[in-house]
Amino acid sequence: MPQETGQEPARALKKTLPKQQTHVVLGFLGLRVNDRRRRELDVLSTVLSGQGGRLFVELRDKRSMAYSVTSVAAEGADPGYFAVYIGTSPEKAEAAVEGIKVELRRAREEKISALELERAQQHLVGTHAIGLQRNSARAALLALDYLYGLGDENLTRYAEQVFAVTQDSVLKLAQEIIDFEHSAMATVGP
């Protein structure tokens, strides 16, 4: 199977199904698991997602456009993806997608605030620590780090890596990843 290069032109697919909601995913080519910029992408995704994230506040709280909205980043041996998902009513779908694009453009054009950075870092490090409370979780991460060639210290350096992320490094990554000319959008709904 040919590998994605990120240079394919933007594409969109719409699937009509007997649903009450419209579901949209807008995605971009992401990073490999061994890319040093993974933590910047984690921070960017955290700033955008969650109940206090930009997407939730703008599209759900302020504009009542979303039942659910989030961003997600997934890395792999091959480049993964960075995507934004929204579940909305069919009559609001077009405006909701435009609202997502506004927030993504903002992430490309403006540095995240110092408070957003600190909150994202604290959330990521805290969630990571909670996830490592079970021996099986630590063993699984150590095994994956070994398989991906990340080294056995990768597990213990997570907090250090997250706290090394800066407002400038998140902005630079957003400018590289969020490229509407080379994106994919899938829509499912009535």
Chart the SSEs and their pairings:
Layout: E1 11-16, E2 22-29, H1 38-48, H2 54-62, E3 68-74, E4 81-88, H3 93-109, H4 114-131, H5 135-147, H6 158-163, H7 167-177, E5 183-189
Parallel strand pairs: 1-5
Antiparallel strand pairs: 2-4, 2-5, 3-4
Helix pairs in contact: 1-4, 1-7, 2-3, 3-7
Describe this structure in words.
There is one protein chain. The chain is α+β, with helices and mostly antiparallel strands. It has a domain at 11-111 and 166-189: 2-Layer Sandwich (Cytochrome Bc1 Complex, Chain A, domain 1), CATH 3.30.830. Helices cover 45% and strands 19% of the residues. The chain has helices spanning 38-48, 54-62, 93-109, 114-131, 135-147, 158-163, 167-177, and strands at residues 11-16, 22-29, 68-74, 81-88, 183-189. 29% of the residues are buried.
